[in-house]
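Researcher: Last one for today. Full complex below.
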Amino acid sequence: DAGITQSPRHKVTETGTPVTLRCHQTENHRYMYWYRQDPGHGLRLIHYSYGVKDTDKGEVSDGYSVSRSKTEDFLLTLESATSSQTSVYFCAISESVLGNTSGYTFGSGTRLTVV
Amino acid sequence: AQTVTQSQPEMSVQEAETVTLSCTYDTSESDYYLFWYKQPPSRQMILVIRQEAYKQQNATENRFSVNFQKAAKSFSLKISDSQLGDAAMYFCAYRSWQGGSEKLVFGKGTKLTVNP
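Model: Here's the assembly. Have a good evening.
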């Protein structure tokens, strides 16, 4: 299985402050994703990346930005955190080769609380 | 856009019995992948089973099997001989592949309780 780590595991921050979550993979998978999980909503896609400096929006991208300057790192930034962004955030990578996939591997999640 | 619907927010089953979780999806694509993921209280996302749409044979992984009905766009998960460790949230997911870009879309999940 691909190695994927998220940091931090937990964070409490104040409304209006910037927050950056980090996702790191140990292999050279092309696709990386950021999801948020909220009760009753499942996992919803925030942003994804299909290569260095190549990113695109998901269904709930407002208030979030991402960057990918290296293959192994995918950063999610909340420019000015709001209470509605209190959630559990998951990073994922796709273990795809030429369109065929064996699945997706997820990080352990970051529980973010905005007070 | 693709959508995934899990119509059962909660299900329960007796230990050693069989339970089926429902999933339907909407797509115009002909080739795609479907997945079931398990999320125990530890919140780790664990792949349970994978199905390729062009394969008519239903996927099976030990006690877990699927009933894939492509025409009906249905992808249910059957858990046989349920165990206490099967208690978790289960998510159905659809992989979209369009223009060289792929995304994974999730249903809202089904919480499975296993009663001893």
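The CA atoms of residues 20 and 64 of chain A lie 10 Å apart. Chain A has a mean pLDDT of 93.
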